[in-house]
Every structure is written in C-alpha cells, then in structure tokens.
Write a structure and sequence with these properties.
Length: 220
C-alpha cells in the first residue's frame, strides 16, 4: 500500500497497524518500522475493551514500541460512555509520561491466558447507548469463566461488528434494538438486550463443557 502511495507521488501520509492483541501490534509495528523508518506510525490497540484490562493491553504495546523509538501519534481505544471518553486522553498522557520518566508497569506473564473480553471504543456508529452497559454486564456475568481460555467480542455497531467478531470464540454485535450472537463466524441468533446475557451464558457453558469433554481421556 505504501508503494502505491509512493508511486502516485504522495509523501505526507501516516500508517496505522492495529489489532486487539497487544503482541500482534508490537510485532507488526516493529517489522514495519524496520522496513520503512521514513513513514510515520500511528499506534493503537483497537477494541482494547473496558478499563482496566483495556488500559493494560494498550500500555503493553505502547511501552514496548515507544521505548524503542517507534510511533509518532497514538490513540487509546476504551469502551466507555460518551461522558467519560476524555479518560482515553488522560490514559494516553499518563502512559507517555511514564515512558518518558522510565516508569514501566509489570504485567504478569499469564495476563489474558484465560478469559479475554474485547470490545470496541463506542464510537458514533453505536446505535444504542445500552452497548457500553452490555459490555460491562458481559464482563460481570462471565467472571466465573475467567480461568478458561475464551475470547468474547462485544461490538457496538452493524458496520464492523459482523466481521470483527468472526475470530472470537463468542461474539456479540449490537443493532439499535437487538443483539446478534455468534459462535465463531456462525450466527447463533438475534436477541433483545434483555435476553442476550442469558443466551450468552448458555454459549459460555457449552464452550466450557465442550473443552472439558475434549480434555477427558478416551474411555474415562
């Protein structure tokens, strides 16, 4: 893509390589910076999710990259109600200041080895303000599964939601009145905001039972 822009005579552009996985963000940006150090990079962990987990995911990527001199601009993406979106700026400034002062936060090696909830940053495409509450309720409801390696994606719109939930074990994408539940790329059904938590719990329980059965020795 950069070559296309170069061949067309564009000189003033910026590249952003994002993912909800901090390690993928680190790897992609390191490789790009090594190959094209002349092109500015915009850093971010997309769909990082709810605080504090979303802040930790973002900090992991920023600390590694910025301390290596990689990155020119940043974006912190957290799932927050509109009146609290300013927290993204505060978090970004705090991380930058910590890096500048040589303060790095220790993150356990097993962070996100279990339950991982990713959620989009509640942008203007969200058609129902219940989305943020739903993301928070999903985290509370699934706490009993926190030791299981399970990724749940909670997306707030029908623009990105259908595709960006495909890679999760279970996915929710929200419309104005109903929430669509997915198992991987497969659609399970469409439910009201009042129904969805119960339906999601059924799928979480099924996921755990299937994993347990797969680990059982044959003949036991």
């Amino acid at each position: 893509h950069c070559k296309i822009l170069d061949d067309l005579g564009f000189e003033d552009y910026c590249v952003s390589l994002k993912d909800s996985d901090s390690e993928k963000v680190i790897d992609a940006n390191r490789r790009f910076a090594a190959e094209r150090p002349d092109v500015p990079l915009h850093l971010g962990v997309t769909e990082a999710g709810l605080p504090p987990e979303g802040i930790i995911k973002t900090r992991i990527a920023f600390e590694q990259l910025i301390s290596e001199g990689i990155g020119d601009t940043i974006r912190v993406s957290l799932t927050l109600p509109n009146e609290e979106k300013g927290q993204e700026i505060s978090v970004g400034r705090e991380i930058i200041q910590d890096i500048r002062d040589g303060r790095f936060r220790s993150v356990p090696k097993n962070f996100l080895d279990g339950l991982n909830i990713i959620a989009c940053p509640s942008c203007s495409r969200v058609e129902n303000d219940k989305f943020v509450d739903l993301a928070q309720d999903v985290r509370k409801m699934t706490q009993y599964a926190d030791k299981h390696k399970l990724t749940i994606a909670v997306m707030g719109c029908r623009v990105n939601g259908p595709g960006e939930t495909d890679d999760a074990d279970l996915g929710l994408w929200c419309g104005p009145f109903r929430v669509n539940l997915k198992r991987g790329p497969e659609t399970v059904g469409s439910y009201s905001y009042d129904e969805i938590l119960g339906k999601l719990k059924e799928e979480v329980d099924r996921f755990i039972a299937d994993k347990h059965e797969a680990l059982e020795p044959s003949g036991s």
